[in-house]
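Notebook p. 47: complex prediction with pyridoxal-5'-phosphate.
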Amino acid sequence: MRIPLSKPDIGEREIEYVTRVLRTGQLSTGSLVAKFEERFAAFAGTRFAVATSSGTAALHLCVRALDIGAADEVLTTAFSFVASVNCLLYERAMPAFADIDPATLNLDPDHLREILAREYIYDRANKRHVNRWSGRILKAILPVHIFGLPCDMDPILELAREFNLAVLEDACEALGAEYRGRRVGTFGDATVFAFYPNKQMTTAEGGMVVTDSPRIAKLCRVMRNQGRDEEAQWLRHVRLGYNYRLSNLHCALGLAQLERIDHLLSARARVAARYSRGLSQIPGIELPYDPPETKRSWFVYVIRLQGASGAARRDKLKAGLQERGIACQTYFPAIHRQPYFQELLALPEYALPIAEWASGCCLALPFFPAMTELQVAEVCSAVEDILGDVRPGTQSVQRQYSEVLRSAL
Ligand SMILES: *Cc1c(COP(=O)(O)O)cnc(C)c1O
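Predicted complex, structure tokens below:
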């Protein structure tokens, strides 16, 4: 594609730090792992950070550390990347889906409460909530800050307290986002971030668990390193573990990115602002909505095609953009409609009309920090052109585009 969907911002500092590690030969474990974790914890505002080989690995460690297993359920969203549900399935736990809010596309706290009241019975003797149909124990809520927008955490935390549930935040798309002035990652019992190249910062592949709990941090540390007790001998394994380590080499890249994080985040915000200006006059599309109590960290720029024909127009727009060499992606197909998911056990019929509607009408446009004004203008102009109904009397994006073109020449 001529304009890619995403592109990491790799500078000289990244190349220098990575090269330095290559010269030392300390490729796997090394001093930069602890340094990266320390700096990351300081950025996130938590006591501990544990680096992992991916965001998915980090989620899996948290599920195990929270003791979520085959008899358990976790309330979460179906409008997400599959990893936030797969981490439960790895442990034979099941997701229980609540629907999303149509404006924010995040878990709808009212629907959460409704499900909690309708589907669960309180087991007084054991002080836990049991699904009246499946008999599974509800252990946690797993909110996903989708597209970098924080979930409505106050009512979610209130429900967690009321129903005695753990909270595991999936902040893989929301590094640096804030809710009521507080960074995501500081609300849950544990939070997960990811560093795949399309995220706000990258380590190529990588992830991080952050928590204030010494117990969770210790468990994650031990499990990511083959169950080794890190204070003991190398070949003493105290529990079932994995190789979910993040290498010294990856951490070097992460350190360089973290040192430039303010720049990376503000460059993304600038691109988003250009999109919002460029697309604001095009009828039939809805731009990202940010509630006043949130500060989004821009991960992707996702528009929604409005109305009953939204899904058809979304598919038309997708084909048209691709034809012009402009990458785009249908973030996200609802997880409970994925082919692999249908084959899992006997599933209840989920009624998630908003998640399904959003899956049909959302489209992510090319979005990365180094995206030029000209590239944004070209995408906006293509969107307008393909959707084909210019509103008379307003300045068209086409004209803005030619103005940018002129000033660039
Ligand atoms: C990126 C992402 C993850 C983790 O992805 P990895 O590729 O395993 O690092 C998890 N959840 C969500 C919502 C994501 O966007």
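Notes: The pocket of pyridoxal-5'-phosphate is lined by residues 54-56, 80-81, 83-84, 144, 170, 172-173, 194, 196, 207 (CB under 6 Å). Residues 390-402, 404-409 have pLDDT under 50 and may be disordered.
Next step: compare against the earlier run before touching the bench.
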